[in-house]
């Protein structure tokens, strides 16, 4: 699905901002400007209240008890699974596996699916813009199975060199795994097109939606992907919760990954049999509160509207790029149009770590470093970048204040 910015809406963004208590914090004596939502988003009161309600009224383990609290907790947990399925456009809640986040979801597929399917000579196709979470797990399973990795190159403008795909997406490729939105470049990849090309070549697809799930509309059936992973903490939910979507027939073919309680049908001293997906992949006590918090975050985002959020993101990002160009010695990475809600940049006068520390003294939270994209940074000849990432609770005035701080930094470090 290609994301293009819809028209601006009449959403009351100022009122929405009031839903986030932490945005009233002061840092270094200055009002907090939080531009680090690509690392983790802030949480609205509705999510905080949902967690509190669960712990105060329904706290019990799920699926195992016959008492009232366990029934309530189980109902809330499974309703959350259905909420995620609806949010992603999945055909069934059985296609949703709760995980700790994007990283665990990718590792699950790499180790469980990859461990069963991959053989020497097989190829896993990735891109050069992948986060380490969508690189290292494939390196590990390739070492174990004898499979090989290939990479779609990234152009200087931050987009994929798709003209090279026919030579890369050959019959040896068993899986094509790629990010929806780059966490360093802001590039929005054409996921439906990539999934269709992979399917035509006989390869499965995995979409890393960590930077897109909370920002723009997603429909896994429209995308045509086989797997999709995301993290709740980047979309207003608690940390430690995320989800893996997998097409039902593929999930059913994958062996258990973690062993323990809850994922079994029967156990003897010699052998165990396991439940069908998704419970086969959720050994032990799950993050019940996290799943409930994730459902509350989805409810909150849907009340605003993902198309409206994307339009607001696009407006903020376009303004930031225009204003950053005014700062002396500034290099901006990534495409100029159709970007996600972040901007990575390099200031000639200062190392990203020094610049981020300077900004923090003014209450501005940026992120400096390689952003778990070391191969990508080396490709661009950089030790890292400074990244400003936005969400619907940010404002134009905050971006203008960031520009003032960066101008001060340019003078200071020069």
Can you walk me through this structure?
38% of the residues lie in helices and 16% in strands. The protein contains 14 helices and 17 strands. It has a 7-stranded mixed beta sheet with strand order 4-10-9-8-7-5-6, with helices on both faces. It has a 4-stranded antiparallel beta sheet with strand order 13-14-17-16, with helices on one face. It has a two-stranded antiparallel sheet with strand order 1-2. The longest helix has 21 residues, at 68-88. The radius of gyration is 22 Å and the shape is globular. The N and C termini lie far apart (44 Å).
Could you give a short account of the major beta sheet?
Answer: 7 strands, mixed
What number of structural domains do the residues give?
2
| Helix share bin | 25-40%
Return residue spans where pLDDT drops below 50 for at least 5 consecutive residues.
Answer: 1-8
Query: Which architecture of the largest domain per CATH?
Result: 3-Layer(aba) Sandwich
Distance between the termini: 44 Å
Shape: globular
Which strand order do you get reading across the main beta sheet? 4-10-9-8-7-5-6
Topology:
Elements (H helix, E strand, L loop, with lengths): L12 H5 L8 E2 L2 E2 L1 E2 L10 H14 L9 H21 L7 E4 L2 H16 L5 E5 L8 H10 L2 E5 L12 H4 L4 E7 L11 H10 L3 E5 L11 H4 L3 E5 L10 E5 L1 H4 L12 E4 L4 E3 L13 H17 L1 H19 L5 E3 L9 E6 L4 H9 L3 E2 L1 E3 L4 H6 L5 E5 L6 H18 L1
Helix pairs in contact: 2-10, 3-10, 4-5, 11-14
């Amino acid at each position: 699905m290609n994301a293009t910015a819809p028209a601006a809406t009449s959403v009351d963004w100022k009122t929405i901002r009031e839903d986030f208590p932490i945005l009233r914090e002061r840092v270094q004596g200055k009002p907090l400007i939080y531009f680090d939502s690509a690392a983790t988003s802030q949480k609205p009161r509705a999510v905080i209240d949902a967690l509190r309600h669960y712990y105060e009224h329904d706290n019990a383990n799920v699926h195992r008890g016959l008492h009232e609290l366990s029934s309530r907790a189980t109902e809330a947990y499974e309703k959350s699974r259905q909420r995620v399925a609806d949010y992603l456009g999945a055909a069934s809640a059985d296609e949703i596996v709760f995980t700790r986040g994007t990283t665990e979801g990718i590792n699950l597929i790499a180790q469980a699916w990859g461990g069963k399917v991959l053989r020497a000579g097989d190829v896993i196709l990735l891109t050069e813009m992948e986060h380490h979470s969508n690189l290292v797990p494939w390196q590990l399973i390739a070492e174990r199975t004898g499979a090989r990795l290939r990479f779609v190159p990234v152009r200087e403008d931050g987009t994929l060199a798709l003209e090279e795909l026919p030579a890369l997406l050959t019959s040896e490729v068993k899986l094509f795994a790629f990010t929806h939105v780059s966490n360093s470049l802001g590039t929005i990849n054409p996921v439906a097109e990539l999934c269709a090309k992979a399917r035509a070549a006989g390869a499965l697809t995995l979409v890393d939606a960590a930077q897109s799930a909370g920002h723009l509309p997603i429909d896994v059936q429209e995308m045509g992907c086989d797997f999709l992973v995301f993290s709740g903490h980047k979309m207003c939910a608690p940390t430690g919760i995320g989800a893996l979507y997998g097409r039902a027939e593929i999930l059913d073919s994958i062996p258990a990954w973690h062993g323990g309680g809850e994922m079994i049908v029967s156990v003897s001293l010699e052998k165990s049999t396991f439940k069908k997906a998704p419970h086969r992949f959720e050994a032990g006590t799950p993050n019940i509160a996290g799943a409930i918090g994730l459902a509350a975050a989805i409810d909150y985002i849907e009340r605003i509207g993902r198309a409206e959020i994307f339009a607001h993101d696009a407006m903020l990002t376009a303004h930031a790029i225009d204003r950053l160009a005014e700062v002396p010695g500034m290099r901006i990475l990534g495409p100029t149009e159709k970007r996600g809600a972040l901007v990575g940049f390099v200031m000639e006068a200062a190392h990203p770590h020094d610049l981020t520390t300077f900004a923090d003294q003014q209450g501005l939270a940026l992120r400096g470093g390689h952003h778990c994209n070391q191969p990508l940074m080396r490709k661009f000849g950089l030790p890292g970048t400074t990244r400003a990432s936005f969400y619907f609770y940010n404002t134009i005035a905050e971006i203008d204040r960031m520009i003032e701080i960066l101008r001060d930094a340019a003078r200071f470090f020069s």
